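Our collaborator T.R. sent over the components below with a one-line note: 'Predict the complex.' Nothing else. No constraints on interfaces, no templates requested, no preferences about which chain binds where. So this is a plain run: every listed entity goes in together, and whatever single assembly comes back becomes the starting point for the next discussion.
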Amino acid sequence: MSAGAARLPAVDSPIIRTEQLVKHFGAVQALKGVDLEVAAGSVFGLLGPNGAGKTTAVRILTTLIEPTGGRAEVAGFDVVKDAEKLRGQIGLAGQFAAVEQHLTGLENLEMVGRLYHLGKAEARRRATEVLDRFGLSEAANRPARTYSGGMKRRLDLGASLVGRPRVLFLDEPTTGLDPRSRLGLWEMIRELQSEGITLLLTTQYLEEADTLADKIAVIDLGTVIAHGTSDELKDQIGGEVLELRVADRSQMGHAMTTLAGVGGTPVIDEVAGSFKIPVGVQGASLLSEVVRRLDDAGVKLADLALHRPTLDDVFLSLTGHTAEEETGEGAAQGRGRRKRKKEGAA
Amino acid sequence: MSGGSVTPVGGSRLKWAFADAMVITRRNLLRFIRIPALFVFSVVQPLMFVLLFRYVFGGNLVPIPGVNYVNFLLPGIFVQTAIFGSTNTGIGLAEDLGSGIIDRFRSLPMARSGVLAGRTFADLGRNLVVVGLMIAVGYLVGFSFQAGPFNALAAVGLSLAVGYSFSWVSASIGLAIKDTESVQAASFTWIFPLTFMSSALVPVTGMPKVLQAVARNNPVTIWANTVRYLTIGRVYDPVHHVSILPAPGDTPASLVVKSSLWILALLLVFIPVSVRTYRKVA
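Returned assembly:
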């Protein structure tokens, strides 16, 4: 009995937990054994490029698809065995606003309320409440197709809240939004967290994860390659980063040989004509030596900076490519979603 | 904090499944009403068939002794229209898959059957409207039910049941192909031969021998002739071998039985196929 009691979930036990989650789509391995733990009431960022497996993970956690292997629990329910019960506890808002274009904002939310099995009056009450909260009251009786992109996204987010979920999944909530709408959405996400809702959001924007998430998991090619707080991740690549941009790109190679042995392995950005060297904590003392060596070698610099690493640097040093680059397994994310991808990009 | 959503138990499960289906039906019907082009074209096409066949082919090409061609034509049009209308089920589902709204539905605590049931119910309602309009137009061009209100209702009911069973055929195709335009193209490759190689618009007796054999066994022929029987309440002139009974030994009663069995067979095959494809389609 006592052994059993020891395994009972503690107060701070994770509200989302996955163990060795695997998903295959035919020959494509979208997830190759993902372990995640998300604390109740936190904002968790799943960060990775297109095709990393973020959407696949969200689709499994929201019971849309079943994993090929491993297990996952959300709000105490197994995503496969207790899928039906779980659906009453979660909300999902996607990358592509899944609202019915030909229904009004109010009708959209009422429909979702009815599908949560709320009574007619309660469904209407909550729909009105949500519209009000998201500044859509005036547009309540207009068909959703007349809404702007930002409004549609807010309506979509609103729809995911009608059932008052304990856990909210946001799959790339700000993709394709203009900066103002993006900031507005960030504000809403913080507000929801303050109300005790646990949020899992996927993003390919490092800035977004950095700003919003308490904990971040970096995912690439179906594997979690790093996790922790934003600060922990930045520390992983060791203190500061020296960023150099040569004035003449043909001197890139020359510059790098000249600086061989200084700091860690440099990461090159061919397009920008720059490279970054992790330099640990003694960056400032190295600075003069770097300048002297390059000067002696006759390499002209366009820019030289010493800074604390951004998540971009973390991503680069972990994966060898930036977060925005499409990886080879881009197709892994979604069969049948290609059409939406195009719309999203437009 | 937790959502006040109700998890259905036991007997109420069926009640909720029905309620969910009704919510989705309403949504689909609202779509139908609010997209004027969709409404107009779903009516224009069968209307065109009525007028073309009534006045272009008229009865010159296909004289049927003892029967006004318009009374021969309209029952066939009802069945054809219902089958054509059923293609909307597959197209609509493919569209919903593409728009992401099915993902939303699947993440909600609603009955899993709701999306498919709601879609097919809505298309049944839509077919009811379109067949109703065909009847109205039919009366304008000389058509009339001649076997009493009960048989008339049975004729309409049978046409709609045919459409409903084909909605599930269409759902299977739509869910398997998933791309709206491909679904549309795919639907017409089977729907044209199926409805034209039958007695829907012309008697099979005018067809080449081989085609006649196919047409006589085509379920569309059986349905069209049953609806004809229910419309005029009699079998045609046997002297001229223009009978609505497709095979020797058929009686009006056996026709009704065969019609029902074909509908039942389609439902028994394609409902499970659709449901299974829907489950896997994520």
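Summary for T.R.: Chain B touches chain A through 36 residues (CB under 8 Å).
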